[in-house]
Amino acid sequence: MNALVTGLQGIMQTVGRGFLEKIAAFGQGSLFIFSLLLTLPSALLRVDLLLKQIYVAGVQSLPIILMAGLFVGMVLSLQGYNILVEFNAEEAVGSMTALSLLRELGPVVGALLFAGRAGSALTAEIGLMRSTEQISALEMMAVDPLKFVYAPRFLAVVIALPLLVLIFNALGVFGGYLVSVSWLGVDDGAFWSQMSSQVDWSEDVMNGVIKSVAFGLLIAIVALFQGVNAIPSSEGVSNATTRTVVHSSLGILGLDFILTSIMFN
Amino acid sequence: MTENTEALIEIKNLTFSRGSRKIFDDITLSIPKGKITAIMGPSGSGKTTLLKLIAGQLQPDSGVVTVEGLNVHQLSRKKIYQLRRKMGMLFQSGALLTDLNVFDNVAFPLREHTKLPAMMIDALVLMKLQAVGLRGAKNLMPSELSGGMSRRVALARGIALDPEMIFYDEPFVGQDPITKGVLVKLIKTLSDSLDLTSVMVSHDVDEVMQIADYICVISEGKLIAEGPKETLLNESTGYVNQFIKGLPDGPVPFHFPSVPYLDDLGESQKRGGVR
Amino acid sequence: MKKQTRIEIWVGAFVLMSLMALSYLAFQVSNFSGFKDRPTYEVSALFDNIGGLKTRAPLKLSGVVIGRITAIEIDPVSFKARVHMQIDQAFNELPVDSSVSILTSGLLGDQYVGLDPGGDEEVLAQGDEIEMTQSAMVLEELIGQFLVKFSESD
User: Fold this and answer.
1) Domain that holds residue A95
2) pTM for this structure?
3) Mean pLDDT, to the nearest integer, of A245-254?
4) Widest CA span in chain C
């Protein structure tokens, strides 16, 4: 009986301590994000650092985004054609492809790929910079890591993702055009006119861009937070990298549902 | 401490703990200006932590650290960054920025903190690299350097802004004898020629004894001994003697604290019997 | 500094690419040039049945888009559907006796409002109501009519 009581006490204690630790970690995380946001304006002035990080996050993600956009568009219109042709409505394949891309697949698939490509690299880089004392060294050289390391990376991620998603969308539409018009023989004029009559600039194109900005913020916060809180060992950094991909992917899908229900309802 | 040298860094009643473990318990010591001071102690005695406390990267539980008369832990963020420009730190790993080459690493503090023209920066960087003997390696990336070379580059970077004090975190650990010799010579010449105040944490007794003027020994969070090198060398008993001579047994016992050996043996036999 | 130049060129190309993508999406894929900033005037019409008509559907004259449906509501007096539409100010000389009908683009396409111009001297203006309307074709009614006619002719 006594053993049961002490056992229960032990469990309660573990749960309680775990909960308190989580709250403390959350508080520290929010403080970090807050002080990071405060340094963003001054980070905008360091164009050299920002450009370099946009290069790392954006330009280096281009190949995967280009390939993925093209193939996603091609597959979408192939599937769409096979369904629509049953109803003799294959002209609608263009608008279907464009709408699915602009509203959902462009921002979501683009952000998922970006989280895997750039978000994980960001976490690993910061984790390694911490474990090799580079962050400490910067502080000792009187260079604020917030301004020099974290803020430019944060901004670069938030800027790069919407641009990548735009490119993804455009290439996806082009892929759809290739498959349906050049390969499956849908009428060229009908393809474009159906599309442009169905796709609305502000409702579809701009909402997609807003989504991608939100996803960019999410990825930047998750990746930086995981990098800064990574245990400075090879195992700790690899775990943090995995967490970045998992957390930001789930976050993207959840946030997408919320944004979609606000935007298209 | 000899009376005619003033203290640059003073530590008073410093207490610091990580979790429930006390790393420093009420330490008081002072570091003389223009000398090489070595802080020695066994592994895990928190020597690196002490350097981070002096530089204001960590906050103590209680106690005061003053550098040039300024209380480090009461300074604003801006002031502490100003103070750090007078400090150089050599990290154990070198801590070079991995995306910059050797030249840019040394140029980094100059470019961040001064508005010198590029030509001037080039000249200064080459001068610092020449001082550590690595002018020929200026185009290499940090990944192409050996551990000893990284430390020398880091040293060049540490003195790029002509600091008044420089901290060495375990400069000799894991180096071959030649590299150790090079580092010993470098630390000594830099200290003499630039009139630097050097603080070195290390447990490499031989190297430290070659160059240090003043030595503090820390163990289990307490300051065990403090004094000029000669005084400590002459100590023939106690912890300091064991540490400096590297004796396996003494005030620090060879065995980890435990119940008497025979009791332990009896216990395990009893357990074996029950099974 | 050569490295920095290379980075700048690449980032420039990247931004340029995304701008090109944006304009492609704006002008080729979507209806960006639409009626966003151009002046419009609003008219309304009462329909017995709007079928599957939705807001934002186009208003067409001889197949050319001249406006959009902005709101659909139930008229509290007649219990019919009142459809509000905005017409581009460029087409401000449509006769008041024009008629509108709800049509379908293709067999399964979306529904839109088609406008047939009348012959009156007077023109439609802000707030006018179009009297002559033709409701959407509902498939069940269509089949019903067909069956009735079929049995009559027997």
Assistant:
1) 31-263
2) 0.78
3) 96
4) 92
